[in-house]
Task: structure prediction
Amino acid sequence: MIKIQQLFSALIIVLVLGGALSCKKTFDAPPGPSDDLNIVANTTIQVLKSRHTVASQIDVIGDDIIICGIVSANDKSGNFYKQLFIQDTSGAMQIMIDATSLYATYPVGRRVYVKCKGLALSDYKGNMQLGIKADVGGVPSVQGIPGALVGQYILGGSINNPVEPIVVTLNQLSTSMSDRYINALVKLEDFEFDVTNVTYSDTSSYKSTVNRTFSKGCGSKESSIIRTSAYANFAAQTLPNGHGSITAVYTVYTTTKQFIIRDTTDVQFNAPRCVIQPPSASSHISIRQLRSRYISSPGTKITDSVSISGIVISDAANGNLSTGSVVIQDGDNGINVYFGPVTSVGINVGDSISFYIVGDSLKLYKGAMELDAYGTAPSIIATGRSVTPRVKTINEINAALTRPLGDPLNFEYTLVKILNATATPAGTFSGNKTLTDGSSSPNTMTLYTKSTATFAGQTMPTVASSWIGYPSKYNTTIELQMRSAADVQ
Result:
């Protein structure tokens, strides 16, 4: 009889402990009383987030709002700093705490209750956050809850609660401040890093946070970034060379989607990378044939496997072209190609390059044609090549660039030479200038030089000169861009 009573008592203890460690399956309705704390959550995280509707505004909570959530991420790896992320089934919240080693008290899987009265809601560039209102240099802002006061606002409950990431697609995620996925632990499937011979973050003494791009691979344009602090304990590890899933906290920076992993186990690339079978030699097309494929805005996707080649007539090293872009010419036609900042490195003026186009797109960018070949690795098949600029009047250039983009007589992004032209107003090359020659009207066009160009600060000649560059459109304005001051003769 005693043994039966002991067995019955043990069973009661197990049931009580099991109840204490269990977590409610849903917080869509306010949770009931906790089994381990004498506290009741009376609203959901998403309802709390709905109180903050004006970007950058600080909303101090004046009523007795209590939320409950499970810790999904903390500062254990160093990739988060003085931040705690919690979520329920309605949404997720970033809590700012002015303390370190938060993981010791709030491990992943711990249920916490947050007494929100006296705290403040705001956002940083669209990313919602909860903290304390404070004046910094006389300017109101939201800062971390002081370590000595954390216990007044945050109460720790049961531990080892399951934390399952929400499986999503990139298209499901928006950058709207009220998006229920912002600050949530999510899982993206079927991705790979665009480059794999680099580390997660900066290993130099500068300690800069680094963005690494990931995509579906095989020419897919569905991509985003993983953002990693240089202080993460895995910053020096090399990105995995494979294909698979990414678990991360979803955050936003204005209109940019970005993801932050907790540690390297969040990246499960166990499948081989997507491999493209190169097209045959017979599938090579000219830039003229490529341009003729353009149909309409916003772009035309190249669905078959073809390759193109051309001689580089301008690169970003001169500062007068966007980083990641090169201009190539083949015969009497040219095109601006965007490879991305990594794969464009090492490509220089005079290089003859060839590359495959698989899933890339011809796009209308600010009125000019661009080939979006992001992540494509071109082959340099020769160096030291040159293209002789064709002598054209401004009238001929204006006529050619008003033709349709796919017209073979539209010679945008090819080298031209304009004789006996003057540039006004006088001064340095930087900015918009007006080129005028002696041809029939219209005999004026814009000479544009970015302020970042290596020659932007040099003084232009005031006498009639020959000007070499490549014409293109900026919206409806036809303009000429040079590569260096040596293009004026």
Observations:
- The chain has four domains: 35-156, 166-271, 281-382, 390-487.
- Confidence is low (pLDDT under 50) at residues 1-35.
- The longest strand covers residues 243-253.
- Residues 214 and 259 are 10 Å apart (CA to CA).
